[in-house]
Amino acid sequence: MGRSRPAHDPAARCRRVAIVFGDQLNADSAVFDGFDPQADAVWMAESADEATGTWNHKSRIVFFLSAMRHFRDAQRAAGRVVHYHELSPDASTDRGADLRTILSDDLARLRPDRIVVVEPGEYRTRSMVESVAAGCGVAVDVLGDRSFYTSHDEFDSWASGRKSLVMEQFYRTVRKRHGILIDDDGRPEGGQWNYDSDNRESFGKTGPSSIPKPIGFAPDAITRRVIDLVRHRFPEHPGRIDRFDLPVTTGQAREALADFIASRLPDFGRYEDAMWTGEPVLYHSRLSAALNAKLIDARSCVDAAIDAYRRGAAPLNSVEGFVRQIVGWREFVRGVYWNRMPGYAKLNALECDDHDVPACFWTGETDMRCVSEAMRSLIDRAWTHHIERLMVLGQFALLSGVHPYRFHEWHMAMYVDAADWVSLPNALGMSQFGDGGVIATKPYCASGNYINRMSNYCSGCRYDPRVADGQNACPFTTLYWDFLARHRDRLASNHRMGFQLKNLERKPAHELDRIRARAATLRDTLEQPAAGRPTPRPGQNKENRP
């Protein structure tokens, strides 16, 4: 079946086509099991639709295209045939705008006996591959993604029969199964499963001491060509591109991990939830994009952190907090995604109207200092740490009544590490409470006082976090009380909201009326284009969008 052909002959018919998507860039992927360079081929494609179907941050596009091209070249250097569709500066020369068209055309040309693909990270992508394969009369093997600790079947088995899915319970199950931070007697290292109570410190008035800046990687020739392409083809997309320094190869990702373990992990846990002006990274790893693209393996990150603890180089609360992000939250949200899709994407538990994200979520132009600080990082780097995502940008969208799927679309567009499997549960579910409590047992809502306690953002801001009514009232505080009032009946049965709802009841009716009137005015102005410029809108994933 053509086994005598040389590996460099791309025209001959192949036995198997191994599909590799842009978030599957691990050389030990299951698609390479039994790979025969003389008979098999790799298929990869850049698609204009992936960049424009959802409005993408320029740096997000650069990251994926550069990482894919580096991976392609590494596979070719290893002697494998790679059929690769590369975007060109001239859109008229593209062979197709979407992955479906490109894949269909290439399968018709290559006529493989079968396709192999690791389960994609997006429900619609898996459906697309299976549909195209059926249309071309080609068998397809969808393989498990062994870069995760938990398979879909294992998660479904754990979730079966449970009235609620609690991440902490799942996290303990995975740690026991894999012996992660478990002592010889089968108990959690240090006697506790969770050190979250030790990981909530703020920097106080003095601010953080000197923080080692994370390692960055100057764009090489491949990345520079991609940057030029993005500047030419996607000039109107949001975000900056001149500060791009993310790892785009496995080697670079390993360097980034080593840098985090040595310089920032020791204080990561203690200040995990803190924020500070001009410090977008603080002690966070900034490894999420490399992890989700599979440039680095989750086990490598967990093992390196635990090794630092064993060597006395990092305290247990920091190591457990980092491990929980990967073994707990990352695995849990993936399990929920595949367990609940496709219906999960249509959930809207708070029955929000079809409101888009505020205009400042694209431009960064706002006089709210906390939002401005978070957006500066997002525009510059296509990334913010998790507290700015959840308790600044996410919370503001929640309090404002943004439709949960619109928030997910925006998150997918602006964050370099966003993938459908991780964004839907985190953005639609945890942040916007769109799933009604599947991911989080209560809405993550607070007044501006929370941000004031965990950061210095309120210092010098024109708004007062303690005030809910009037021109100087903090929009977070105003919208917080309005949110509680709007959803009072819906949240009354949630015992975790009892304290907040009791405080709402103490508000005099005339004061609450003024607060709600101001909140209505705020919400009416949020979607107004800033400074006369149009507000970009993300595209529609028609298979998922409600």
List strands and helices in order, with pairings:
Blueprint: E1 16-19, E2 40-45, H1 48-52, H2 58-77, E3 81-85, H3 99-110, E4 114-118, H4 123-136, E5 139-143, H5 152-159, H6 167-178, H7 221-233, H8 250-263, H9 265-268, H10 288-292, H11 298-310, H12 316-340, H13 360-363, H14 369-381, H15 386-400, H16 404-414, H17 420-431, H18 448-454, H19 475-486, H20 488-491, H21 498-505, H22 509-526
Parallel strand pairs: 1-2, 1-4, 2-3, 4-5
Helix pairs in contact: 2-7, 3-4, 5-12, 6-12, 8-11, 11-12, 12-17, 14-15, 15-19, 16-17, 19-22
Protein model, in words:
The protein has 3 domains: 16-143, HUPs (Rossmann fold), CATH 3.40.50; 152-214 and 264-340, Serine Threonine Protein Phosphatase 5, Tetratricopeptide repeat (Alpha Horseshoe), CATH 1.25.40; 345-532, DNA Cyclobutane Dipyrimidine Photolyase, subunit A, domain 3 (Orthogonal Bundle), CATH 1.10.579. A 5-stranded parallel β-sheet has the order 3-2-1-4-5, sandwiched between helices. The two termini are 46 Å apart. With 546 residues, it is mainly alpha-helical. The protein has helices at residues 48-52, 58-77, 99-110, 123-136, 152-159, 167-178, 221-233, 250-263, 265-268, 288-292, 298-310, 316-340, 360-363, 369-381, 386-400, 404-414, 420-431, 448-454, 475-486, 488-491, 498-505, 509-526, and strands at 16-19, 40-45, 81-85, 114-118, 139-143. The radius of gyration is 24 Å and the shape is globular. Strand 4 (114-118), helix 4 and strand 5 (139-143) form a beta-alpha-beta unit. It contains 22 helices and 5 strands. Helix content is 46%, strand content 5%. Helix 14 packs across helix 15.
